[in-house]
Design a protein that fits this description.
about 240 residues, nine-stranded mixed sheet, 8 helices, alpha+beta, 9 strands, 434 Repressor (Amino-terminal Domain), 2 domains, Umud Fragment, subunit A
Length: about 240
């Protein structure tokens, strides 16, 4: 299925159903009609605040918002093409689930990202640390390599997603090239980025416009700047508390 980097299929569908015009999107976002055409073509990427403005304006319910963010996020991660879109997501899921590994029936440890301030990598995994330091649990996949859940707080600007959103990671895994990852830099900042690796360098590439700069590191610089980095299994956005 062809997916759109701005979820325009859903936007256009709702405009038609509500008897609205494309020009109203221009007025809402305070951009020109020509700029909306660029959004429609996928030339210009909407940022998180603009996307949520549209979702609220067109009165997306939870199910529609889920499909909207799932489509655009997958499109940005996978380059706009995907054979099948996962419609069982919450707000944003970046990859498909396969078989029994993805049956959601197990409680996994959950904690705020801020709780990791005292986490001593590599003495233990984040999952192990959360089991010791947090009583909170989250329903997650029954299989995975050290699966645990992290909740965003004041790190919103660094991570690029709203506060109280949930990030599921494999705390015993390392991302393959092309995967979404959560990284902690040695200066204490967190980055939610697409991990791209070639022979001599890695690139941590933002997927949402206006959610941080691209970080390019030579192989020898990775350990100097990145404390840890793990694959992301799923994201759940929380926009209203």
């Amino acid at each position: 299925m062809k997916m759109h980097v701005n979820g325009w299929r859903t936007i256009e569908q709702q405009l038609i159903q509500q008897g609205r015009k494309q020009g109203e999107i221009a007025q809402l976002l305070k951009i020109t009609p020509a700029a909306v055409s660029q959004v429609k073509k996928g030339v210009f990427l909407l940022n998180p605040k603009q996307l949520e403005k549209i979702a609220s304006f067109l009165q997306f319910d939870d199910t529609l918002r889920s499909e909207f963010y799932t489509e655009l996020f997958n499109a940005r991660l996978l380059g706009g093409e995907c054979t099948q879109m996962n419609r069982g997501a919450h707000y944003r899921v970046y990859r498909e689930r396969h078989g029994s590994d993805w049956i959601f029936e197990t409680e996994i440890p959950l904690g705020d990202l801020g709780l990791l301030a005292d986490y001593a990598f590599p003495l233990e995994t984040i999952r192990s640390y959360l089991l010791r330091n947090s009583s909170e649990r989250y329903v997650g996949p029954r299989r995975g390599r050290g699966v645990c859940a992290l909740r965003t707080g004041d790190e919103f600007e660094d991570v690029g997603i709203p506060q109280k959103s949930i990030i599921l990671i494999e705390s015993e895994g390392y991302p393959d090239s092309g995967m979404l990852s959560l990284a902690c830099l040695r200066d204490g900042h967190y980055l939610l980025r697409k991990y791209v690796q070639d022979a001599s360098r890695i690139t941590l590439r933002p997927l949402l416009f206006d959610s941080g700069a691209e970080l390019v590191l030579n192989s020898h610089e990775v350990s100097e700047q990145v404390l840890w980095i793990h694959p992301v299994l799923e994201l759940t956005f929380r926009f209203n508390g």
